[in-house]
Structures are given as C-alpha cells and as structure tokens.
Amino acid sequence: MKIAVIGTGYVGLVTGTCLAETGNEVICVDIVEEKVNKMRAGEMPIYEPGLDLLFNRNIKQERLTFTTNLAEAIAPAKVIFLALPTPPGADGSADLSYVLGAAKDIAKLITEYKVIVTKSTVPVGTADKVTAVLKANTDVPFAVVSNPEFLREGVAVEDFMKPDRVVIGTMDEKARQIMGDLYAPYVRQGNPILYMDERSSELTKYAANSFLATKITFMNEIANMCELVGADVDMVRKGVGADARIGKRFLFPGVGYGGSCFPKDVQALSKAAEENKYEFKILNSVMEVNETQKRRLVVKLREYYGADGLKGKHFALWGLAFKPETDDIREAPALYIIDDLIAAGATVTAYDPEGMPNVKKLLGDKIAYAKDRYSALEDADALLIVTEWPVFRTPDFDFMKEKLNAPVIFDGRNLYDLDRMKDYGFYYSSIGRKVVS
After folding, report:
1. Mean pLDDT over all residues of the chain?
2. Spatial strand order in the sheet of 427-429
3. Domains plus CATH for the chain?
4. Binding residues for NAD(+)
C-alpha cells in the first residue's frame, strides 16, 4: 500500500518506518530540508532502540523515502497519516494549528478518494474539525480516521510491530476496510483491532494516558505516606501489584512522570473537561501532585543540608532524560531539580547516556557535563539519581566512595538495596523507604 506520513517527529518516524517494514511504500514529509537530507542519507534524527536497523534497511530497499514536497507525497498515497505536533497552548488546551493547516493543504492537492488519519494525540472532536476543513476546500471524496498511537519511548518499535491493540475510529466502511488491511500484519497473534466512532477513539488515547499518569501519581503519594509511617513502598507495591485487578506495571514510585505524552495529555483532558463545564478533580490533583513530586529530591536535600545549606554545594546528577532508553528531555524531572539547585546557589555535573546533547541545547553551560558516570562524581558532595538507566544499576560502590567528597546518595528511582547501602557505608535516601545512615 502507498502511504504518506506528514511529520517526521517521534511518532511520524516510528510509524513510517514500521509501516515500510511490512512491505508498504512510505513517503515521509517534513518542511525542514536539512533534516530531510540527513534522513535520506540514513541519519536518524531521534534516539530509539531498534529503529535504526529498520530505518536504514527500508531506505536501502527504497520502501522508505523522504521529501519536503507535500504534493509529491500525497499524489500516490492511499492513506495519509497526520503525525504533527499538538503542543499545549497557554491555557493547556491542545494546539491544533499544525493538524488543521495540513488538512487544508491536503484538501487542495487530492484528486481521488483518500483516507486521512490523525495519528497525533488530539482532543475529542478533532476528526470533525479536520473533516470540516477538508470539505471547505475540496469536493473530492475522502474519509477522516482517528488512529491514536500507543508507543512507549524506548520500546516503540516493539509496540508498533506487536501492539496490545489497534484503535481505529471511523464510520466510513471503505476506510475501515483499508485500515484493517493495513494493520492486519501487526495483529497476527490475535491482539484486537478495535473499531469505534471517531470521538470515542480520540478520548481513548487521553483516557489511557491519564489513567497511567494517575496510577504513577497514586504510588508516589503512597511512597510519601510510607516515609511518614515507616513502611516500605517496595513491599506495598508488590502486595498491591499481585492483585490481578491492579497489575504490576506503573507502580514504581519516583520523582514524577515527564515526557511528551503524560503531562500534555493529562492537561489537555482536564482542559477539555473544563470546556465542557465539567471539573475533572482527579486529574487536577494528579497534575498538582506530580509538580510537587518532581522536586522531591530537592526537599530531601534541604532537610539534610539545612534550609540554606545548598549554597556552594556541588552535586553529581545521574540521568537527564525523562526515562531510560530515550534522549527525550521534555518535562524531565531532572530539569526541575537542576533549576532549583542552581537557584539555591549549588552547582551540578550531570551524566546521561543519551540526553546530554538535548540538555546542552537547552541549558548551555549552566551545568557541567561528564564523559561517563564516574567522572560526574569528581568533587561532588552527593550523588542524585534521577533516571533509571541500566548502566546506573550495578556501579562500583567502593570506587564511588573514593570519588565523592562524602558517601551520600539521594536516589529518585530506588535502584539500590537498603541493606547493601548500609554495608557499603553510604547515607542513602530513596523514595518511600527508610533512610540508610
């Protein structure tokens, strides 16, 4: 099948590459010529494990191509995916200007029936808006489909190639058949394709992400409670997760969620509720708690060093990306922690396997950047762990004690065993567990 993907950000590039992998001919469109030229040469613009292999294979086999020319991509395509940014506006609502602008441009180019798919995460009613824009600019028949993505950064290729489910929102029977044929190779193991109306499809994405964000936030609240009453959140997590109705995933406490999806989607759903004169109280609480949780390590630092004790201190920080196996720093807790430390007069040297280039673009020389995890510890008064990269899980603790000015660790991801930290002689403060001193 011939496919056009408009937008080569995270969602667009994963979508286009994985669709090409099953034999489709995919043209990806981006307005930045330099980026397009680099992709044509096999240079990946994002870090995503496993994507580079498929990316380069499909470029070589000429199933995956790139262009800045929208008309060139639209003409042969049976299906057109819109994978464009929907950033939060000043009031928290999703900005649809990119999506609706692309719809208007597409309308002026199509000469035969096309299936136009919103892959971006969009508010309820967006398919209706896209349809209205298309109808206002063309008499050519078309169908608008809502097909939200459920990709987890770090395992996006697996999520696309072997999805838990595929959600397709359309009331057009021809479009339903085309989308079913397109996704058939990805659900051979029996995972469902769920057909529904467009509005239900759009709300499904927001509901899923908001529920997961709520689950994370609830466990962070439980972790904070554990510290007050002397319980161990790891034990509570295992006891709760053993209930099949709840499950084990998304129960790990930490310093809050970040990234491009959860913060934006929770905010957008809350705003959509407000626009429909409904107060989504639980989501408002989730956002409030998460903002506080991002700074949980700074609270612990102030308790340890005193209210004004951070001035002049130097900290090592492991982890800048919002989660491991990605270079995405959007809404990353590390950025909030760094801001607070700098404002308090402290200095920071950070290390992250993939996120440092993006932080350098954002913060410049406000902090220092280490070549590896141990170099970050030089002359540091304490180590802060913010992202649970695998490389941080089994360090040489004796060597760490030699490098640090004092054997002090504040762990925002609960990477280490408490008894082991005691045996090594560290002061070790984590989330929802007793302090080792």
Report:
1. 96
2. 368-369, 347-351, 314-318, 382-385, 408-411, 427-429
3. 2-195 (3.40.50.720), 241-429 (3.40.50.720)
4. 30, 35, 86, 121, 153, 264, 330
